[in-house]
């Protein structure tokens, strides 16, 4: 099992514990673009991209677990293997072109970009440098 963090799912899960929200504005008033599309699909009970629940065998160096992302990086949580091989979740950024090995269980991961790519915050590297 691999855990993936999506702020949209956290918000929707929290809203489902109380009164069910029907509109994106009720859940996240400032959502735009792809984030809004994902929220609208979730509210309709659909998955915009079926990328949140990867399955498959334990990732090895030869055959790593493939994690799909709309962007060039995403947060992934590794809970280890099954049964006695489980460990506390280790969260990390998985980036396009940079395989990652869990430091606890040595499971290997790679990112497959299934969208237009780019940074998840919508800003390029140049925006990180303030002049």
3D architecture notes:
With 131 residues, this protein is an alpha+beta fold. Among the domains are: 3-43, no CATH class; 65-113, Cytochrome C Oxidase, Chain F (Sandwich). 20% of the residues lie in helices and 25% in strands. The chain has three helices and six strands. The chain has helices at residues 7-17, 24-27, 33-43, and strands at residues 3-4, 65-69, 73-80, 86-95, 100-101, 108-113. It has a three-stranded antiparallel sheet with strand order 1-3-4, with no helix packed on it. The chain has a three-stranded mixed sheet with strand order 2-6-5, with no helix packed on it. The longest helix is centred in the first third of the chain and has 11 residues, at 7-17. The protein is globular and about 40 Å long.
Q: Average pLDDT value?
A: 76
The CATH topology annotation of the domain at 65-113 reads as Cytochrome C Oxidase, Chain F
**What spatial order of strands do you see in the largest sheet?**
1-3-4
- Specify the overall morphology: globular
Radius of gyration (Å): 16 Å
Structural class: alpha+beta
How many alpha or pi helices? Answer: 3
Terminal residue distance: 43 Å
The CATH C-level class name of the domain at 65-113: Mainly Beta
Can you tell me the residue ranges where pLDDT is under 50 for at least 5 consecutive residues?
Answer: 7-16, 127-131
Order of helices and strands: EHHHEEEEE
What is the architecture of the domain at 65-113 at the second tier of CATH? Sandwich
Major sheet details? 3 strands, antiparallel
What is the beta-strand fraction?
Answer: 25-35%
Name given to the CATH homologous superfamily of the domain at 65-113: Cytochrome c oxidase, subunit Vb
Proportion of residues in helical segments: 10-25%
Number of strands: 6
Binding site for Zn(2+): 78, 87, 102, 105
Family: Belongs to the cytochrome c oxidase subunit 5B (TC 3.D.4.11) family.
Keywords: Metal-binding, Zinc
Pfam family, one: COX5B
């Amino acid at each position: 099992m691999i855990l993936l963090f999506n702020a949209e799912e956290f918000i929707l899960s929290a809203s489902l514990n109380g009164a069910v929200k029907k509109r994106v504005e009720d859940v996240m008033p400032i959502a735009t673009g792809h984030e809004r599309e994902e929220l609208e699909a979730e509210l309709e009970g659909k998955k915009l991209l079926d990328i949140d629940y990867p399955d498959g065998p334990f990732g090895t160096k030869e055959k790593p677990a493939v994690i799909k992302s709309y962007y060039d990086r995403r947060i992934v949580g590794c809970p280890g293997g099954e049964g006695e091989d489980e460990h506390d979740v280790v969260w990390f950024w998985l980036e396009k072109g940079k395989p990652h090995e869990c430091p606890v269980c040595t499971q290997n991961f790679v990112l497959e970009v299934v969208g237009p790519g780019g940074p998840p915050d919508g800003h390029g590297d140049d925006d990180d440098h303030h002049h």
